[in-house]
Amino acid sequence: RPRSHTVTTTSSSFTANLSASSSTLAYDREFLRTLPGLLMVTEIVLGLLVWTLIAGTEYFLYPAFGWVMFVAVFYWVLTVFFLIIYMTMTYTRIPQVPWTTVGLCFNGSAFILYLIAAIVDASSVTKELDSHNYNSWAASSFFAFVVTSCYAGNTYFSFISWQSRTLQ
Q1: Comparing C-alpha atoms, which of 56, 53, 34, 52 is closest to residue 158?
Q2: Cα 81 to Cα 33: distance, rounded to the nearest angstrom
Q3: Which residue range is the domain that position 62 belongs to?
Q4: Number of domains comprising the chain
Q5: Which residues form the MARVEL domain (predicted)?
Q6: Residues 43, 79: contact at Cβ < 8 Å?
Q7: What would the pLDDT profile of 17-74 be if each residue is shown by its tens digit?
Q8: Residue 10 has what pLDDT?
Q9: Can you give the pTM of this predicted structure?
Q10: How many CB atoms lie under 10 A from the CB of residue 52?
Q11: Lowest CB count within 10 Å: 20, 69, 83, 157, which one?
Q12: Does the CA dihedral 32-77-144-106 come out positive or negative?
């Protein structure tokens, strides 16, 4: 005699949450076409050059290069973090954070500390110090000044954005 088979399907809450959360995930491709976005990508690429050029040497023997490494790695990580925040438009989902002020403080502090680090880097590069590492340290000094100018540009754009928000 034929038996009746009943098949019951259920969807897990994980699947429902996954589909709901992925629909709210935004991706802002246009950010990379703006001047602040291009400056941020340049800061990441050239900042990576700064710290890898120093990391490939015996920088730990010279405290000045340790400072430059700290600044370069610290702001490289934070810049990657902020790029992800801007690319995924996370700032729109966390309105409690004053993003224009955070951006201004971040870019302003990066500009000041990178300027100090670039000056320390340039003033510490001498042929007498260690001729084996001279070219790497000289190149890192050049790129540190270029990254400093990028952070100066982003500080300017952050200030304009901050000023327009505070005047409203």
Answers
A1: 34
A2: 18
A3: 27-96
A4: 1
A5: 31-163
A6: yes
A7: 434 444 466 788 888 999 999 999 999 999 999 999 999 988 888 899 999 999 999 9
A8: 47
A9: 0.81
A10: 15
A11: 20
A12: positive
